[in-house]
Design brief:
heterodimer, A: 259 residues, alpha+beta, seven-stranded antiparallel beta sheet, five-stranded antiparallel beta sheet, globular, B: 185 residues, mainly alpha, Arc Repressor Mutant, subunit A
Chain lengths: 259, 185
């Protein structure tokens, strides 16, 4: 196997400048794609055919998640067709195989009231490719949401910052999903629409080498209407950087994380 | 349209989120003095280069949150540098979080490149350091901030709670004295 070695630079400040701008453009392209996808999810795909239907059943666990995955696959298929650049963000699932639950374990199902009635459900799980995924299933089965990422990358992010926001979606409710280190006892999430209502899972260690023990969270707030955020509001609400997560540790300390 | 290199630091930071190229002139204006500062604080050019990359990655990532009323851009940048420096000392390792978040490629510097950087750092220090202790405290601070740290007069004045004219006067007086001390030596 050929080992990849970075080139040796003879103009250090020039090399830093070049790499900084290259990385920034790459990140902007990924952010733009994610924003396009999320705005699409929040404004257009609400009309997608509902498949779930089982969301209101008692004791719901992976069946609801399975239904949610079906809707997600439709979304991701559409996104695949739209993606002409060939460059992709590894946190976004692009096909059904990527979001399909694998034989590995999952968190318990987190339920929370949905703005238009009924309960929505969320869970983190391992997919068939041993990635950590998160899915949120709405009670009406429409526009379910989710995403996957490498457990090693996630462990690294939690190591760096205690909390990691996996996704933000907005429609009738704004939903923020993510993970915190299992050291965190409880969390508060604040965003452009104020404080969010939070559900935090029990500690979960994804059954894969290198993964760290974590807790998954889902935080929601009503958008105060029938899903009608204008594009300016939506941009603000959908930007993960506009959220602050307060993690409360067992020793009474509070860690504030700005994604 | 005003070209990027003619824009103020505040404008460049505001533009950088939508147009990362705007960060280029901001980097060019401050990279050398930040590197000088970090080299002086760490005593190691390679570590200073690594920290410079980390500080600018953090600044790039948070440029959208920069608010002019909090601090002038340069003071804000050096504030990030001080935090990164403290975090690196605490962990006995250079913080890489911002570079990882930005997915920056690791950069390896050649000995030749590091030597060249050291020459520039030495040149900026030489001739000024001897005799600095003979200046008044206010002059010493002003000369250090302007000549060694290469900071803007406006930043120094804001930090010292003095007018820009006063700072200019102190720097000018301090440099004249240093020149005189140098001639006598």
């Amino acid at each position: 196997m050929t080992e990849h070695r970075p080139p040796i630079e003879t103009d250090p400040l020039g090399a830093i400048r070049k790499e900084l701008l290259t990385a920034a453009w790459r990140r902007k392209a990924a952010d733009d794609r994610r924003r396009r996808l999320l705005v699409t999810v929040s404004t257009v795909l609400v009309s997608l055919a509902c498949v779930a239907g089982g969301a209101t059943a008692a004791g719901v666990d992976l069946p609801v998640i399975g239904d949610a995955l079906h809707t997600l696959s439709v979304i991701n298929e559409a996104d695949n067709k739209a993606d002409v650049n060939g460059e992709r963000d590894p946190t976004e699932p692009r096909n059904l195989a990527e979001i399909k639950p694998g034989p590995g374990n999952s968190t318990e199902t987190l339920s929370f009231p949905w703005a238009t009635g009924g309960d929505a459900f969320a869970a983190a799980y391992l997919n068939t490719q041993d990635q950590v995924c998160f899915v949120v299933a709405r009670p009406d089965g429409e526009s379910n949401q989710g995403g996957c990422m490498s457990p090693l990358l996630l462990a690294e992010r939690l190591d760096d910052g205690v909390a990691y926001v996996q996704g933000v979606w907005s429609g009738v409710s704004t939903v923020v999903t993510g993970y915190v280190s299992d050291k965190v006892e409880r969390i508060g999430v604040r965003g452009p629409q104020g404080d969010l209502d939070v559900r935090l899972s029990e500690p979960w260690r994804p059954d894969v080498v290198g993964a760290s023990s974590l807790k998954a969270f889902v935080a929601t707030v009503d958008s105060g209407g029938d899903g009608g955020l204008d594009i300016v509001e939506a941009n603000k609400v959908l930007d993960a950087r506009n959220y602050v997560i307060e993690g409360h540790l067992p020793d009474g300390r509070t860690v504030v994380v700005r994604p | 349209m005003v070209p990027l290199d003619k824009r103020s630091d505040v404008e460049l930071l505001a533009l950088a989120r939508r147009n990362p190229d705007a960060f280029g002139p901001f980097y060019e204006r401050h990279a050398q003095s930040l590197l000088n500062y970090l080299a002086r604080r760490t005593g190691d050019t390679e570590v200073a280069l690594d920290l410079t990359a980390e500080v600018f990655a953090a600044a790039m990532a948070s440029s959208g949150r920069y608010r002019e009323e909090q601090a002038p851009p340069r003071a804000w940048l050096f504030g990030i540098a001080n935090k990164k420096l403290a975090a690196s000392r605490r962990r006995s390792a250079i913080d890489q979080a911002a570079r990882r978040r930005l997915r920056m490629r690791r950069i390896e510097f050649s000995d030749e490149g590091i030597e060249r950087v050291e020459e520039v750092i030495d040149a900026s220090r030489s001739g000024y350091l001897s005799g600095m202790d003979r200046l008044s405290p206010a002059e010493r601070l002003a000369v250090k901030a302007r000549v060694i740290d290469e900071r803007d007069y406006a930043d120094i004045a804001a930090e010292a709670h003095d007018s820009e004219a006063t700072i200019r006067q102190r720097v000018s007086r301090g440099l004249t004295k240093l020149e005189r001390f140098g001639r006598r030596a």
